[in-house]
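Q: What residues go here?
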């Protein structure tokens, strides 16, 4: 789905009309306001998980003051469409969706395992300050790793310390699992009211394909601690496992041209999740093994598998003897989960995805989440011949802004194999 001409990207103010310039100014004001709100809400959530009452109360006071500036809010709602400040964009609102309870439950079980390991180590060292020292080292190394990943300068050796990986998981696991759920739920009909009818066709097509239970195998590339996989399980259980949301057995109400799509399965049929990362051995030893045990207790019908992958290498196919021969039938997956991988590998992913996209099945989905749309724009330019695209971030309701690099929160793009 093409949103707007490429020449609008980076269009200078001097070439805009007075009306366009004023609208752009108002939209930027709304984006800045919502970004401040998001930042404070995220700080509150992190403080609550750390049981840090001082930071939590301080952030709540700042948020209350910000939201109390009614004149700013009134101006924004008067000048811009209310959908920009809709419940689909704010972190605190997305955490109210039905997926939150289960994801939070899995997150807490996972971190209880980490606390048990730390207590064992503390007892072995017989030191009162040992646990505090571990937390300090964990925080420092986690921040260093995140800084390198932001710049795309991370190295394999940075993933060998378990304390660093647990610190990373504490920062990102819950947040990114919820990001997947809140983004994918924007495909449902109640989120499409503000869109023009011509924009909703692809959204509806994908939504009904998902509800029909067509996602049996998922693959997470650059999986890390497995947060996207947990987000997917929660999302499918919420929307596909809900009797009130299932597609009716009579498929005549489905406006589709693709007769080969299966619309008869109406249960959550996810069977396996493939997890791949270039530091997979370390993730498995530290986090993925306990996560597999937890998921096995919660969802025994879903199996986890993992292997090594380096997206800077060419993807040739899993049926051939290649350096990627651990990727068992990756091209048979129905959905691919890719979070922050494109930004962290900086254009080195081109040949890998070129080979993968040519081998996946029609209607396969690619979910991308990145800190900014920079690499996603590049991805769209390269593969628009083979994929359709749907923006599921704050630009969803503003086609004229989708080619720009500004977003409220992360940039989220869904690609569909033609």
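A:
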């Amino acid at each position: 789905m093409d949103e707007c001409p490429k020449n609008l990207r980076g269009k200078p103010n001097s070439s805009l009309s007075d009306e366009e310039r004023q609208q752009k100014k108002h939209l930027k004001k709304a984006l800045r306001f919502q970004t401040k709100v998001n930042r404070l809400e995220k700080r509150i959530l992190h403080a609550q998980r750390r049981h840090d009452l001082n930071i939590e109360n301080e952030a709540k006071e700042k948020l209350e003051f910000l939201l109390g500036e009614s004149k700013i809010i009134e101006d924004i709602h008067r000048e811009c469409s209310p959908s920009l400040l809709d419940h689909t964009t704010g972190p605190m609102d997305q955490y109210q969706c039905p997926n939150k309870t289960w994801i939070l439950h899995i997150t807490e079980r996972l971190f209880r395992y980490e606390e048990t390991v730390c207590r064992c180590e503390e007892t072995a060292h017989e030191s009162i300050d040992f646990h505090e020292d571990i937390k300090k080292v964990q925080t420092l190394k986690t921040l260093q790793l995140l800084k390198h990943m932001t710049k795309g300068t991370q190295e394999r050796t940075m993933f060998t310390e378990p304390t660093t990986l647990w610190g990373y998981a504490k920062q990102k696991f819950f947040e990114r699992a919820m990001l997947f759920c809140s983004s994918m739920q924007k495909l449902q009909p109640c989120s499409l009211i503000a869109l023009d009818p011509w924009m909703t066709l692809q959204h509806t097509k994908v939504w009904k394909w998902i509800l029909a239970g067509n996602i049996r195998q998922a693959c997470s590339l650059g999986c890390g601690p497995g947060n996207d996989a947990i987000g997917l399980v929660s999302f499918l259980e919420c929307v596909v496992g809900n009797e009130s949301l299932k597609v009716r057995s009579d498929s005549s109400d489905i406006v589709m041209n693709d007769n080969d799509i299966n619309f008869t399965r109406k249960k959550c049929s996810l069977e396996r999740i493939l997890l791949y990362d270039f530091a997979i051995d370390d993730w498995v030893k530290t986090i993925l093994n306990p996560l597999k045990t937890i998921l096995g207790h919660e969802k025994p019908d879903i199996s986890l598998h993992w292997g090594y992958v380096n997206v800077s290498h060419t993807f040739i196919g899993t049926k051939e003897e290649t350096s990627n021969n651990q990727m068992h039938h990756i091209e048979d997956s129905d959905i691919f989960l890719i979070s922050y991988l494109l930004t962290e590998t900086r254009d080195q992913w081109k040949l890998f995805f070129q080979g993968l996209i040519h081998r996946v099945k029609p209607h396969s989905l690619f979910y991308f989440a990145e800190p900014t749309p920079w690499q996603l724009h590049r991805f769209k330019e390269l593969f628009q011949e083979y994929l359709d695209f749907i923006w599921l971030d704050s630009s969803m309701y503003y086609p004229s802004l989708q080619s720009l690099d500004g977003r409220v929160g992360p940039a989220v793009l869904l690609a569909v194999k033609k």
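A: Context that may help when evaluating the design: The two ends are 11 Å apart (CA to CA). The longest helix spans residues 18-50.
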